[in-house]
Write a structure and sequence with these properties.
This protein is an alpha/beta fold. The chain contains twelve helices and eight strands. It has a single domain, classed as Alpha/Beta hydrolase fold, catalytic domain (Rossmann fold). Helix 5 crosses helix 6. About 2% of the residues have low confidence. One of its GO terms (biological process) is antibiotic biosynthetic process.
Length: 346
């Protein structure tokens, strides 16, 4: 087994931080043989509707052996460059996340969200011109998932979860949608009816998330034009995850680092756009967080690239999975909004 992983790591080193359209299928096929099949100890219920859009459906995974009332809940939002991805990407993905964490006694919600239409062979398309998938549609989907969890997850049908122990987990563009939801108050044109974070969030995980965008990349230009209506930085910049965070009101509950612990994860071979954005977000977080000067939990995963980190969850290559599991446990062990003591071995 170690020899097989060595070959994978060698391929990662060979490709370094290069990550192009279509590479996600290559890396999935490389990692999929290492992922076990669905566990008979885990119950999965599929395609629960959480909103009106076609893609507003989610799956729930929970343990059949660990039946504690008030179990922690992990809500996962997949990546895909804003224009691709699915909660059932393949037979094993993203069930790898559901199966792994459910066996740790954590209920897992894996949701689809709306996608920006994209055709790599066209500069524009009629579908894109007609689309209503505009900012902040992805963030609104995250909100609807949070509300569905709040209204349903405590039922035995979904594993007896606790609404006060919900951790949000977004990979790549999925994490950008999570951030644009949590930091909605940074946009004066969006309606935020409550000063607190509601429904409750016990913690947030950002894994290889583009908090900011490199508009010089042709693929990014198309996405920005379609999602934000323009690729001009003065249009999308204030509405990016980083821009929204910087513009949060000083009394925003999302700035409270004690009540909303934040994990920012990246990798040794990270996409430059994503790594640069993460550094900018970490600096902004330290500048704006309360108590003053608080840092987010930050981790660079050795040996991995932009996608292999999340693909590795559920395999014997469990460095990333263990870090996330420990963060979730720490966020949800103290009860709602009481503060947390973090201890990680790096």
């Amino acid at each position: 087994m170690e020899g097989a992983y060595k070959e994978v790591y060698e391929k990662i080193v060979l490709n370094t931080d290069r990550f192009n359209l279509g590479d996600e299928e290559t890396w999935r096929q490389i990692y999929e043989p290492f992922v076990p099949g669905h566990s008979p100890r885990v119950q999965v219920t599929r395609d629960h509707r959480y909103g009106p859009a076609e893609r507003n459906v989610l799956d729930v995974y929970f343990s059949l052996e660990i039946s504690e009332t008030g179990s922690p809940v992990l809500a996962f939002f997949h990546g895909g460059g804003f224009f691709s991805g699915d909660k059932q990407w393949s037979e094993k993905y993203w069930g790898n996340i559901g199966n792994y964490f459910a066996q740790q006694g954590i209920i897992v919600v894996i949701a689809n969200h709306q996608l920006v239409p994209y055709n790599k062979n066209e500069v524009s398309s009629r579908e894109a011109e007609r689309t209503t998938i505009k900012y902040p549609a992805g963030a609104d989907d995250v909100q609807l998932v949070r509300e569905w969890i709040y209204n349903n997850i405590s039922s035995p049908q979904f594993g007896n979860g606790s609404v006060d122990k919900v951790v949000l987990f977004g990979h790549s563009s999925g994490g950008a949608h999570v951030a644009m939801n949590l930091y909605a108050a940074g946009d004066p044109e969006r309606t935020v009816t409550r000063p607190d974070v509601f429904p409750p969030v016990a913690g947030v995980i950002y894994l290889s998330v583009p908090f900011w965008y490199d508009r010089t990349r042709p693929i990014r230009q198309k996405i920005l034009q379609r999602y934000y209506g323009s690729d001009a930085e003065n249009v999308w910049g204030p509405r990016s995850a980083l821009g929204l965070f910087k513009n949060l009101p000083n009394d925003s509950a999302a700035l409270d680092a004690i009540k909303l612990p934040t994990y920012v994860g990246t990798v040794k071979w990270e996409v430059k756009e994503t790594f640069d954005g993460a550094m900018a977000f970490l600096n902004a977080y330290r500048e704006r967080s309360q108590p003053a000067g608080t840092n987010a939990i930050f981790h660079v995963l050795d040996k991995h690239n932009h996608l292999s980190n999340v693909l590795s969850i559920g395999t014997h290559d469990d460095a990333q999975a263990k870090m996330l599991r420990d963060f979730i446990r720490t966020c949800t062990s103290s009860g709602p909004n009481t503060g947390h003591k973090f201890s990680f071995k790096i």
